[in-house]
Q: What sequence folds into this?
């Protein structure tokens, strides 16, 4: 919807200027007339920022913004003044630009939710719809506090997950670099020493295999790296498509051990977002549309979309979720009971809390088991390299003795 800059006069004859969103110039004039303004000039205006501007703000920063805005509104500070206070006190350039845009457009009569929707990298779809519901229902402060709490929980969960897998990633990277250095730079120095043993057929098979692999790595390693980079680029491009993401998410759910963790986190995100939206008055079909994308898994999203179609036909939510096979039986049973008792919003949030706690414990245990396993594998690889080099050296020393 384009924006129109206008100059108009009020009933008292005062000249005013501003921006108004409308489909056409005629509609803009009609909207101004509805505000008892007499337009003198109406023209297509320029955005303060381009619609959908890719200004990104971290989730933990946005959680603070939602919380501070809710506190200001609850203290009786008007919305425009609250936005101006947050804009002036922030040192984040992206956030300052976004809040400036929000302030200008709300001042010109636009809905705060509509302006937030222009910046998907900062305001999630859930936040936009909860703010819209809060504005329409008169509970904007409560809606903002819930968005803040939800965002903080998501960021905390993300932080715990990243800290849990950081050490295995570092260990794997360092281990790969050490082993690669041994094979490419250290092992070839023994090749000349072992030539006579190879000619007599006395070179151990392990040593021969190690030398051949080292020689291959030195000659063709660059080609392998290029092929790996091309494969990674192809996979990355493929994952940007709907088919690629669907295939990737399906494979994630079928992975041994890790698949159940991926599934649990996706179901927990869906339950939390759906419960939060329902609690704040968002209609269930709209809430399902938002929460299915919040799950972060295309397979789960398709199951929720099918459930939404069934609800439109008058069915319950639990039945299609159970038939999809992607939701744990306990979750489906609790949803069924909650639908009968009309406590779906509360039960969904409580389930999300329980699933996240259990899955986080499983993830911590898996990582604790993975760390010593990686150390054992790394030590075994290095030991094999050492043995492959020492055995022929010992054999040569024995022959000389």
A:
């Amino acid at each position: 919807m384009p924006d129109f800059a206008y100059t108009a006069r009020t009933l008292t004859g005062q000249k005013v200027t501003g921006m108004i969103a409308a489909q056409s110039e005629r509609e803009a004039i009609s909207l101004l007339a509805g505000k008892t303004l007499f337009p003198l000039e109406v023209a297509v205006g320029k955005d303060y920022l381009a619609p959908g501007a890719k200004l990104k703000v971290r989730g933990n920063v946005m959680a603070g913004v939602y919380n501070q805005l809710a506190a200001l509104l609850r203290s009786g500070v008007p919305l425009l003044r609250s936005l101006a206070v947050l804009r002036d006190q922030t040192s984040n350039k992206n956030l300052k630009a976004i809040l400036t845009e929000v302030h200008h457009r709300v001042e010109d009569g636009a809905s705060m939710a509509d302006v937030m929707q222009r910046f998907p990298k900062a305001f999630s779809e859930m936040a936009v719809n909860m703010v819209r519901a809060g504005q329409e229902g008169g509970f904007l402060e409560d809606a903002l506090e819930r968005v803040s709490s939800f965002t903080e929980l998501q960021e905390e969960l993300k932080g715990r997950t990243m800290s849990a897998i950081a050490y295995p990633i570092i260990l794997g990277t360092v281990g790969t670099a050490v082993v690669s250095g041994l094979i490419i730079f250290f092992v070839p120095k023994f090749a000349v020493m072992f030539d006579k043993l190879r000619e007599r057929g006395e070179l151990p098979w392990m040593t021969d295999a190690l030398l051949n692999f080292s020689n291959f790595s030195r000659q063709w390693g660059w080609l392998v790296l290029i092929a790996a980079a091309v494969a990674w680029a192809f996979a990355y491009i493929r994952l940007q498509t709907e088919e690629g993401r669907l295939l990737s998410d399906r494979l994630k759910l079928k992975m041994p051990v890790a698949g159940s963790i991926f599934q649990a986190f996706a179901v927990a995100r869906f339950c939390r977002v759906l419960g939060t939206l329902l609690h704040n008055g968002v209609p269930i079909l709209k809430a399902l549309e938002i929460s299915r994308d919040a799950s972060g898994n295309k397979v789960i999203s398709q199951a929720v979309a099918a459930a939404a179609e069934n609800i439109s036909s008058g069915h319950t939510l639990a039945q299609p979720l159970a038939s999809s096979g992607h939701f744990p039986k306990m979750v489906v049973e609790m949803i069924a009971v909650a639908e009968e008792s009309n406590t779906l919003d509360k039960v969904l949030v409580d389930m999300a809390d329980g699933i996240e706690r259990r899955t986080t414990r499983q993830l911590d245990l898996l990582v604790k088991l993975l760390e010593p396993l990686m150390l054992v594998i790394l030590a075994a690889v290095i030991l094999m390299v050492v043995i492959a080099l020492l055995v022929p050296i010992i054999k040569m020393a024995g022959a000389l003795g």
About this structure: Strands lie at 3-9, 15-21, 38-44. The chain has 16 helices and three strands.
